[in-house]
Amino acid sequence: MSFTDAIFNFVLNLLYQWNYPGVFLLMSLEGATLPVPSEIVLPLTGFLVYQGKLEFWTAVAAATLGSLLGTIVDFGIGYYLGRPAVLRYGRKIRLSEKHLMITEKWFANHGSAAVLLARFVPLLRTLIAFPAGTAKMKIGRFLAYSTVGIVVWDIILIYLGVFAGQNASSIVYFLDATLPLIGYAAVGGIILAVLLLSRRHGKKQDKPESSDLSA
């Protein structure tokens, strides 16, 4: 039995027994960068929604709140204890300094928006809380960006599980193989949307200036 198979069976059994608290618990563990992949938890949550055992929006809320709890733990380690503590914590959960450096570079390049964008990229999704904390990002802003990214991610993956129905296991294995491409495509789409909105906003600001000149 592969690692993915073992996690799949563990998650499915726990969700059947615990329902919403199970969703909350598993997503809080993933949010704290423990090896509980949302790519398995969320589609299987959707499968239980399909079966009528869970309600869609309540499941989304449980998943989102769990993820926020976990990511606040990581953010707090970086914010209050600093980078050395992040590295010590990382060693306990088998994350190397190289992983942290990649995330720090991502945060340095994209600033606060990195917290939103990273939610769609495997591994960076949870690690981004550490550099945000060590950079002393305002917690309100961190939670706002995190919530938007987490909610969108949760809705998409839970809906995939609902849509797949009895074939939810196929969705899990499909995501396991293609998720990096999906994540980067989502980030690219968000960046493109931001650029288009910024350009449109800039054009609107230019219009009054041109009318003033003609007057």
Characterization of this structure:
The chain is mainly α. It has one domain (about 5-215). It contains eleven helices and no strands. The radius of gyration is 19 Å and the shape is globular. Residues about 210-215 have low confidence and may be disordered.
Shape: globular
State which percent range the strand residues make up: under 5%
The DSSP helix count reads 11
DSSP strand count: 0
Spans where pLDDT lies below 50 across 5 or more residues? 209-215
The share of residues in helices is over 70%
What integer is the average pLDDT? 83
Describe the biggest sheet?
none
Global structural class: mainly alpha
> How big is the Rg?
19 Å
In whole angstroms, the N-to-C terminal distance is 76 Å
* Helix and strand pattern: HHHHHHHHHHH
Secondary-structure blueprint of this entry?
Elements (H helix, E strand, L loop, with lengths): L2 H16 L1 H12 L6 H13 L5 H26 L1 H10 L4 H14 L2 H5 L6 H4 L1 H6 L4 H26 L3 H47 L1
Helix pairs in contact: 1-2, 1-3, 2-3, 2-4, 3-10, 3-11, 4-5, 4-10, 10-11
What's this entry about, in short?
This protein has about 220 residues and is mainly α. About 85% of the residues lie in helices and about 0% in strands.
Short key terms for the protein model shown above:
11 helices, 215 residues, mainly alpha
